[in-house]
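Predict both folds.
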Amino acid sequence: MRERHSLTLDERRPGFAEIQAAGALHPDSGAWLFFMREVVKLPPEMTPAVYQAIRLGKWRLALDPLAEIRSRALDAHRRAWTHRPFVRSAAR
């Protein structure tokens, strides 16, 4: 008789297990570079934004956790680089 292996909903969603594993690691570890390049497919410069998105945990409820992580990380990165509170304008 064949043994059945049923996957839970969490295991079937793309990248769920990988995101969980990466969330348990420190972002300076070598595994994060692989995670950023091969799984999330974002440049290593965005590691802090991806790490923040994972820590916030909204991806756990998304149907596509990888897309959620990418979207939230890109938004956080964009906010960080477009809002510059201490820069004075050249024209007065």
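Second protein follows, with its predicted structure tokens after the sequence.
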Amino acid sequence: MRIQYDLHELGSRFNYGGQDLLVCGKQDNREGSSSVLLARRWKRDKPDISVDFFTSDNHLFAPTVRMLRKDHGDAHDAHAEHGITELYGKHEGKPVIILGCGPSLSNALPYVKELREKHGHIVIGANSCMHAGFRHCLDYYSVLCWMTQAWWWRGFETKDLPCITSFHTPLEVIRDFPIRYYYDDTFLDVTANKPESRRKYGTLDGGMTVIYCNLHLAFKMGASRIVFVGMDLAYTNFMDHKDDPLNWEKAKGRHPFATRDIHGNTTLTDKNMTAQRDLLKGQTVFVEEEGVSVLNITDNGIFDIGGCMSPGDYLDSVRANENIVPVFQKVGG
């Protein structure tokens, strides 16, 4: 599904093919045109088996995934015993923390550790979060696609760590994570035996970043509250990730620019990260409308969703057993 950007205003809602959609931003495509970023309403009690929904430039993924399946055969299919359908509703009523991998992530380690160990929070990590000290804070570890890199978990014990994976991640995922929960994409028709595979394993929407998939996963798990941490979406203190500075080679390809962070201070970001922010913000509007509160407790960055506080303030609120109600956010005004 491709919708021309200039036909729809930011913040507008419409129905397309039975889907409730929200225009939450735009994305500049490689060919020089623009397309909309669309959030769609998720329902916990309704399985997603369609293949006609695009949240970003996911139509570019299909040729690569088909090439990988040709090279690797059905390696993942042959080893896929469990699906995320087994996790639907598993953590009903629990708060779920989603870890980003921004430069501020490591600052939150002691807070996330206590929230998990003493206050019943479920933690979903991704990508290089283990290198920020979070290996033993994780309940789940999530990988998205062929760009997954094995060094992200190299040197850490992963045999008992449940891994959330698609069918087109590198084969090292099979080797290093005996406990795997598979999901199919709602935007690619490349795995064998669709839609039966989707019904068996379950689906997650894809949207530019593994964090978007993890938001969908937390929603389907039955989260009562979803808490983002380490979501700078900016080069805080000129860093890309922990111990990974924004160097000249990266800057040449990413074209960073100055903007204001959540505190009103100047920081650097880029078009890819601002598009991720806009897409996630749009999707959290629908998530909140389904009764799930969403908070950002990242110290820095540009992820200005309605409910923002520091990790310490959030932990203090949880300790005090306060009913945390974030300010309801809007997109486009």
